[in-house]
Amino acid sequence: MARRPLVVGNWKMNGTRASSQKLVADILAGLPGNSPVEVGVCPPAVFIPEIAQSLAGKSVRLGAQNVADQDEGAYTGEVSAPMLREFNVSLAIVGHSERRALYGETDALVASRYAKAIGHGLTPILCVGETLEERESDATFAVIDKQLGAVLDLSGVESLKQAVIAYEPVWAIGTGRTASTEQAQEVHGYIRGKIAALNAEVADGLQILYGGSVKPDNAVALFGQPDVDGGLIGGASLDAKSFLAICLSA
Ligand code: PEP
C-alpha cells in the first residue's frame, strides 16, 4: 500500500498570538494546492481556537500537543479530547519525550491518553524513542517494545488504523544531532515488523514518522527510507520557509 506522507509541526511552548497567526498564514500561502503530502500543525493549546479559524476549510490538519486521559472533571491543567474536537482538532501528540522526561508521564498514562484520543475520533501521534544511554546499552528495541506494548495492551493493534507513530530518538530531539538514515530505517522497520506480526494490513497502512532535528537539508534522505512516512518537526517548524521545505521533501 502506498502510504501518504505526513509532516507535522510541533510548535511546543513557543510564539505569541500574532506570531502563530503569521506562521500558519505563511504555511498556508506556501503549500501547493493539491499537495501529495498531508501537513499538520500543533500550536500551544491556548492558540488552538484562533488557529482553528485560520485553518477552516483548508487541508492543513490541526493538532494538540497532548490530550487528557479523562473526558472532564477535576483535572487541573488538562485539556480533553471532546474539548479539542470542538475546535476541529484532528491530531493529538501523546507520549512526547518532553512529557515523559520533564513531567513524569509513564507508559501507562500515555496509553490512557492514546485511548481517549482514539475513543473520541482524534488521531493520536504516539511518540516512542530511546535515550542515548539506552541506545548505547543496546536497549533501543526493548524501550520501543515497552512503550508500544503499553498502548497495544490497552487499545489493541486495530486502534493503529486510526493512529500515527513517531519514532523520536531522545538524543536527536532539539540537539541538532539527527539519526542517520540507517538508524532511522532500522527502528522504523523494526516497529512496522512488530505490528505486522500482529496484523499485516494495519502495519502496511501505518504512517511512521521520524522526529529529531529534521531540517530541510536532511529531510529528503530521511523521508526517502522505505519505512519513514514523514516527520514530526520541532524547531524547524517554527520557521515557515524551513517547514515548507521539509513538507516538500516528503
Ligand atoms: C520534537 O520535539 O518532536 C522534535 C522532533 O524536535 P526537533 O525537531 O526540534 O528536534
Entry keywords:
250 residues, alpha/beta, TIM Barrel, 11 helices, globular, binds phosphoenolpyruvate
Beta percentage is 5-15%
Report mean pLDDT, rounded to a whole number.
97
Strand order of the largest sheet: 1-2-3-4-5-6-7-8
Give the full name of the CATH homologous superfamily. Answer: Aldolase class I
**CATH topological fold name:** TIM Barrel
Structural class, from helix and strand content? alpha/beta
Q: Roughly what percent helix?
A: 40-55%
Tally of DSSP helical segments: 11
* Ligand roster: phosphoenolpyruvate
CATH-derived architecture? Alpha-Beta Barrel
Spell the H/E element sequence.
EHEHEHEHHEHHEHHEHEH
User: Largest sheet, described in full?
Assistant: 8 strands, parallel, barrel
The unreliable regions are: none
**CATH C-level label:** Alpha Beta
What's a quick, concise take on this entry?
This protein has 250 residues and is an alpha/beta fold. Helix content is 43%, strand content 15%. Helix 1 runs parallel beside helix 2 and helix 10 runs parallel beside helix 11.
Describe the structure.
- The structure is a single chain.
- This protein has 250 residues and is an alpha/beta fold.
- It has a single domain, classed as TIM Barrel.
- The protein has helices at 17-30, 48-55, 81-85, 97-102, 107-119, 132-136, 140-155, 181-196, 200-205, 216-223, 240-249; strands at residues 6-10, 38-42, 61-64, 91-94, 123-128, 164-167, 207-211, 230-233.
- An eight-stranded parallel barrel has the order 1-2-3-4-5-6-7-8, surrounded by six helices.
- α5 (107-119) crosses α7 and α10 (216-223) runs parallel beside α11 (240-249).
- The radius of gyration is 17 Å and the shape is globular.
- 46% of the residues are buried.
- The mean pLDDT is 97.
- The site of phosphoenolpyruvate has 13 residues, from β8.
